[in-house]
Amino acid sequence: QVQLVESGGGFVQAGGSLRLSCTASRSVDTMGWYRQAPGNERELVAFITRGGATKVADSVKGRFTISRDNAKNTIYLQMNSLSPEDTAVYYCGAIGAWGQGTQVTVSS
Question: Going by DSSP bridges, is the β-strand pair 102-107/10-13 parallel, antiparallel, or unpaired?
């Protein structure tokens, strides 16, 4: 089982930016970011393969960018132009494993 450790969440005002990181305990092909707001189901934000192919949810397209450093088994989520609707716990996921989650709070 792979272990995933996230970092980088926090509190930011609308229009601001945050960068999340997730490091896996070993090499994994596809890794992704998901988020879950109170009362909502967990939803995919973006994923990226080892080869660099990506998919980004329509709700964040043009604002969020996913990238990875294969040498570090780490993926990143650069989040720009944040809005209160982006407030959620953000989880890193890969091959059925989840990180502990990191809170992102955007104030209006």
Answer: parallel
Between vectors from CA 41 to CA 89 and to CA 1, what angle results, nearest 5°?
Answer: 65
- C-alpha torsion angle, residues 31, 78, 89, 70 (rounded to 10): 20
Quick: pLDDT tens for 45-91: 999 999 999 999 999 999 999 999 999 999 999 999 999 999 999 99
SS3 96: coil
CA atoms within 13 A on the CB side of 57: 14
Tokens of 27: 């090499």
Q: Which residues contact 48 (CB under 8 A, 6 or more apart)?
A: 30, 31, 32, 54, 66, 67, 68, 75
When pLDDT is averaged across residues 92-105 and rounded to a whole number, the result is 96
